[in-house]
Amino acid sequence: MVDSFGFLSLLASPEERLKFISEMNITGKTILIRVDLNVPLDEDQNITDDTRIRAILPTIDYALDENAKIILASHMDRPQGKVVPEFSMAPVAKRLKRLLQKEVLLAPDCVGEEVKNLVSKMNGGDIMLLENLRFHPGEEQNDDEFARELAGLAEVYINDAFAVAHRAHASVVAITKFVSICGAGFLMKNELNYFYRAMEDPARPFAAIIGGAKVSSKIPAIENLMDRVDKLIIGGAMANTFLKVIYPDVGTQSLVEEDLVEKARSIMRKARDRGIKFYLPVDCVVANKFDPKAETKIATVQEVPEDWMIVDIGPATSSLFAEALQDAKTIIWNGPMGAFEIDAFSRGTYQMVNTVANSYSLTIVGGGDTDVAINKAGESSRITYISTGGGAFLQLLEGAELPGIKALQTCHERPKTAKASS
Ligand code: 3PG
Ligand code: MG
After folding, report:
1. Is 177 a pocket residue for ligand 1 (Cβ < 6 Å)?
2. What is the largest CA-CA distance in the chain?
């Protein structure tokens, strides 16, 4: 665990601080940029959301201005170390080409003679996208040999892949052992700076909204946030486990993690002892089954019909949460308020999108599917910052170290040559 996020600050000591692409001489150099272009695709390989592609354009534009030879490296999905044609980077290359209005060459692989050969023919301002890194088992194994091969393609390594910074993979961690110049891109800088502003030096009141299905996956984040926030709002199916502390019957079909009820009790006690305002749902949408065609009704949390399940927060809760957020000056939101993938269970999440979008505070949203709800509602421009990270954002919330950030912090301390061994 890290006690402080000071290393994220631009004011941090030079040893702690990350080096950014704008501080390095990359003019005319061959640079390998690790990006996270793991975008959602439909069954015909059409990109359904290109946020992650747009998010790396500032770094690419900067490198183009510096006449660098740009090699982009990313994973797509989880092909388990084998070539799976459906997970090719081809659709991404096509979209990048359109967004940049520029040729983007898709390499047939990410390492090997053919790729080296293609790189040797690059000119300043050329862009090449390597094929899916996870087609090689060495990527997820953080394998030195694979990392060395990747590193051998370039003179400078830039990590702009915040969304995969929580993975100790070869293109994120091991590669920094083999490239002499390493740094972070503009997306990484943005992600860390917004997060730092909220967590380390928030304008108060500071409110956190935590939702999603499983409380077990959010406990470390909640515990870390309790050291920092003034208000804590809990929604989503994970709220059921907290409700169970107070009400014995929350519907036999409702998702409850029985083994965490005591933990939930101690969190609520801690919140009370520390004077943190703690908000739980007061009413909910209940359904007789988890199905778009289910019968639904609104019930108070004391009166969930037996055999039914809680699938969303209710209208009184939406009002209560909106009221609680009225005076907030900083808001962090992770996780939906209900099972919003089903229309009938989505109102609470969309109400929260509105509340957060209408707020005058610094609003930061990340992790889970929260960004999907905001994009669907067309409200992304009214949120201060939407993180591109899911698991990585949650891990930051937990106060846990991100291996990808750690590698960038320490890489400039190590003597390196392309031939360095572990
Ligand atoms: C993500 O979408 O969460 C990142 O791209 C990381 O992918 P992963 O969860 O498959 O490691
Ligand atoms: Mg993930």
Report:
1. no
2. 70
